[in-house]
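User: Some background: our group keeps a shared notebook of sequences we're curious about, and every so often someone picks one and asks for a predicted structure to add to the entry. Today it's my turn. The entry only has the sequence so far, pasted here. Could you supply the structure so I can complete it?
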Amino acid sequence: MGSRRSFLLSGAAFLTGCQVAQMPQAMQPQQGGPFMLGIDFLASRNFDLLRGKRVGLITNHTSMNSRGEMTRVVMQRALGSSLTALYAPEHGIDGTIGAGVHVSTRRDSVTGLTIHSLYGPTRKPTPQMLAPIDMLVFDLQDIGCRSYTYISTMAVAMEACAENGKHFVVLDRPNPMGGWRVEGPPLESKWKSFVGQIPVPYVHGMTAGELAMMTASSKGWISATPRLNVVKMQGWTRNMVWQDTRLHWYRTSPNIPYATSPLYYVATGILGGASAIDIGIGTENPFGYAGGSGVNAQSLLAACQRWDMPGVNFSPYSRNGFGGVRLNIHPRAQADLTALDVMLLGELNRLTSGKVLSRMSGSKLNLFHKVYGSESLYNNLRKGVSASQIIAGWSSWTHSFRSTRQRYLLYP
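Assistant: Of course. Here's the predicted structure to add to the notebook entry:
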C-alpha cells in the first residue's frame, strides 16, 4: 500500500504496508465480551473514526446493527448532517430488485438523503457521486461467494476512492458460511467481470474486511489503493457459521432468503447458468434443487448417493417436466459444495445427452464463463473430461490461496 496507512479498529492491529503489529492494549476487544458487528463497535466508540468528516455510506436493507436498527439511521442520529450521501448496490437499498436489473438513483424515504445507484449506468462511483464526501463507508452483508456482486461493489468503490482522494472504511460482518470453506477454481483475468471482480476462489472463506485488506495489498487487483480502515467485529471466529452469531438474517437478495441460502447458492449457482435446468428459483428454497428437462429423478438420485458429500442429503423430485434432486444441506456440511455444483452439472449433462451444455450460446454462455471464471468447465465437459478430474485441478490453487490469504486474516 506504499505510504498509505490503514488501521484496524477493535482489534488487533496497526497495518503499514503488509506488516502487522499489535495495537495498544486499550484498543483490544475484551476477551469473552459480547458479539459485536463492525457497526456496533464503531458506535461503542461514538463513531470517532468518522468525526469531522463528510461521510457517504454504501448500504442496503442488510445494513443493520445487532439490535435491528438501520446503519444509516444510527449514523445519521450520531453524525447529523455529516452523513451526506448513500450508495446502493445490486438489488437496491431495499433488496427487492431482481438480479441483473438496474437500480435507479433516488431519494431515501428514511433519511432524506440521495441514494446513488452503484448498479445502473455505472457500477463504480463517479467523481460527481463522491464529491460531497471525504470518507466512504461500506456496510453490506456478503454471502462468501465470488460471484455475489457486493464484494465487486466494494472493490470498484475502493478504486474510485483512491482515484478521488477519499478514505474508505469497511464495517465488518460475518461470512455466513464461516471462515474455513475455500473451494473452487481461480478467476482468469480474461473473465474478470462484476460477477468475478477479484481473483479469489469461488468460495473464499473471508469476511468483507479481510477481502478489502487483501484487495488493497495485492498487485493488480485494483488500479489504485485508497487509505483503508477495517472496523473489526468482536467475538467472531473462523469456525462460526451464521447460526452461531444469533443475529437475525435479512434476505440479502430476493433469492437468498435464509441464513443457509449461501450454501445452496454455491451448490447450484454455476449449474443454474446452463440450459433446460431447474435450481428451484421461485420455490420455497431458491438454489435448493438440481434438475433437468426430461431427467429421470431416480437416475440423478442414484448418482448423488454414490458421491461423498458429507452433510448433504438428496431426495427425488419431479415438477413441470423437470426431474432431479432436492438438496438438504447442513449448516456445517463438510462437503465441497463447489465440487457438488460441477458434479451435478456433469451428471445432468450426461443424462440429457449433452443438451444442458450444447444449447448454451451467446450472452448466456458468456455469463456462464464469467461466473465460473474461465471457459475450461464448459470446454472440458463438452470434451468428456470427468467432473472429478476438473475438480482435482483446483486443489493446488486452493492450497496456495489458503497460504496467501493468511496474512490478511483478522480473526482466530
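Suggested note for the entry: The longest helix spans residues 337-351. The CA atoms of residues 58 and 87 lie 5 Å apart.
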